[in-house]
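Good morning,

Both structures are done.
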Amino acid sequence: MGDHDDLRKFITDLAVVHGRVVLSSGREADWYADLRRVTLHHAAAPLVGRVMLDLTADWTYDAVGGLTLGADPIAVSMLHAASAAQRRLDAFVVRKAGKTHGLQRRIEGPEVGGRRVLAVEDTSTTGGSVLTAVETLQEVGAEVVGVAVIVDRGAGDAVRAAGLPYRAAYTLADLGLVA
């Protein structure tokens, strides 16, 4: 098995939780993909980085991140996977609200203004979180080259409607799930 198949197995074995839940979008579902059980797992996190780098290999960007908390471990996994492959890639974190102390930054990490960046998310139903990150990135002058998620729950149309390329490592069908 390769990285993509191995990561899919981690997702189906560790992250998919069955039972009634309310998603961040406000929608209800009969299952939840708790991808932090995968993105923060010692064996799965390196796979996340490699799979997401492979997914976006034909896009040119030099920094990756998104809205905290779902995007944070993905960005760090990608940073480490890129480093292992002798590629320079920075990571950043977009806060949900600006800080009221210190440097009062909304985006933490290396400066992203004027740079080509990739916005990531673990899973997305409506695209709301990742599009919030995109808006914040564009406000500081970053060029968002696209959006990539681990599992798509239906956000692709909203992201593409915002004028951005969109990719998902896995669809619901890939995981044997129905919306």
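Second structure follows.
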Amino acid sequence: MKEIDWANLSFGYLKTDYNVRINFREGAWGELEISSSEQINLHMAATCLHYGQEAFEGLKAFRGKDGKVRIFRLEENAARMQSTCRGIMMAELSTERFREAVLKVVKMNERFIPPYESGASLYIRPLLIGTGAQVGVRPADEYMFLIFVTPVGPYFKGGFSVNPYVITRKYDRAAPLGTGIYKIGGNYAASLRASHEAHAAGYSAEFYLDAREKKYIDECGAANFFGIKDNTYITPQSTSILPSITNKSLMQLAEDMGMKVERRPVAEEELSTFEEAGACGTAAVISPIERIDDPENGHSYIIAKDGKPGPLCTKLYNKLRGIQYGDEPDTHGWVTVLE
């Protein structure tokens, strides 16, 4: 293959050798199939195209200093996809079949897993779509589950450094009791315009308030928010926030470090009280927040007053990354080692 510049990889798509697929037909999942094609053949009336029956996940595999390959929290990704399937009426794939597919696709593309010292990783993208043809609005009777992988660098070009965010009231990412808690493409489509405007104004991402009252913090772009003060890790609780596996992991690590953890509604005014804050997710792990501007009210919440990531954000980031790469003990059983 063409020599890859591992140290300068972007967070984008790079063709690899194989993907894996499992089809659901006549009420049952079939055998796992291996494909070298980047294309899928879809009926023009497939429900994924017309009625949004589409779910995806994102997880990563890491090559450690010891040469071993570690996959982070794949069972949690399986469980979240199953929750999404229940939410939008799709056939659920069992955790065992999900695991089988993840391990197979990583193993078959092992040569694309970046070396330890590069700081890059192998991004794993499971996708589940309704392929059955429907004209009426109802669930499909056929589905395709597939996984492709691609090597990626840091989500933000600056890596682990502080970033500015901007509050938007013009747009909502998701409604309370809607689909915000599910990982579906429609939620991301709903964020594209706000994200484009935030980037054009020089921000890393948009910052959403709750759709009902525009009073409480919801999400940071496509990531969960957390704030730290008085040795307490605080993250919003809402019926429209995607349950981030990274955030769940950070909450556990914060407890391990002796911090108090609170998951509760967080009013916008509380932003001024945080000593540190970050956006967290699979892609960036933690993106420390420099400031959150509120142009509509002419206010700016300055969080990283020295322009640097805070000590607890840094400690949490290093601890989680250490577990992913095998540099820290995996005391919670989060990592699956590729045999």
